[in-house]
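User: I'm writing a tutorial on reading structure tokens. Could you give me a worked example: one chain, its sequence, then its tokens, then a sentence or two explaining what the tokens reveal?
Assistant: Sure. Here is the example chain.
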Amino acid sequence: MPRVISGSAGGIHLSSVRGLETRPTADRVKEALFSMLMSRWPPQGFLDLYAGTGQIGLEAASRGADPVVLVEKNRDGCRVIRENIEKTHLSASVCLLQRPVGPALDALRREGRSFSLIFADPPYREALQTLSRLAGPLADLLTPDGRLILEHDAVTASPANVTYLQLERCCQYGTAMLSFYQKMATAHAAGVV
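And here are its predicted structure tokens:
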């Protein structure tokens, strides 16, 4: 059962989505992720894509990130995320968008939103195709010094460069890989801010 590790909601166990092919991020991976992000804390906005139970975004909010936007298209997943937001008492800093990621990114871009940290955990078998398809909109939403973190299967190699995003580093945890991307300097020159 996923839980919030640290911060104002630390120790609270989160509800899970039953019967769906969700794959909550393991505590070990989550702890390592947030340890690596501490030098960038608190972020200027945190975006959690393919949020599942909401555990990554809620962990960020529990540790002081504000605003936190969670994107999940599955109705049952969104029901569980709402329960978890209520359970953790983080509704003041967390917003849930119930829609597919592509249209959600378009809406956030139209609103002029930006995020210094974007976490994406698409289905493992689709992770790199998803990155290729959404790299442009993701780069648009990143602040100039922001980072995109992609969780994917460790078997699949991360591309070094993808439409305005450059691979900074990869960290493997068992079968999971965290790939950190930064916005390329050419993105700034091309007007992708």
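What the tokens reveal: The domain at 39-189 is CATH 3.40.50.150 (Rossmann fold). The mean pLDDT is 90.
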